What does this fold into?
Amino acid sequence: MAITITAILKAKTGKEELLREQLIKVISPSRQEAGCIEYILHASIENKNEFVFYETWQDEESLLKHIESKHYQAYRQGTEDLIESRNVYRLEKIVQ
It folds into this structure.
């Protein structure tokens, strides 16, 4: 079963550009991972400090490998002091 992740990240005030740069770095290596169907970064139109990742993974195993990957771990460490809040939703499609 495919798993969709929606991660909503809010940057600390004044850290918006630094967070954007760090988020962009994780896109390419994540897209190259086995089991990655899509990995898309969005920026909020209304709120310049909010970013949303929309990801689809083939299955739980590929998602777990992503979370354990070096580039994902580097992203988490590199953004620790830049993020005010992080909300992650694990979703499954009801209708295609």
In short: Residues 22 and 78 are 7 Å apart (CA to CA). The chain has a mean pLDDT of 96.
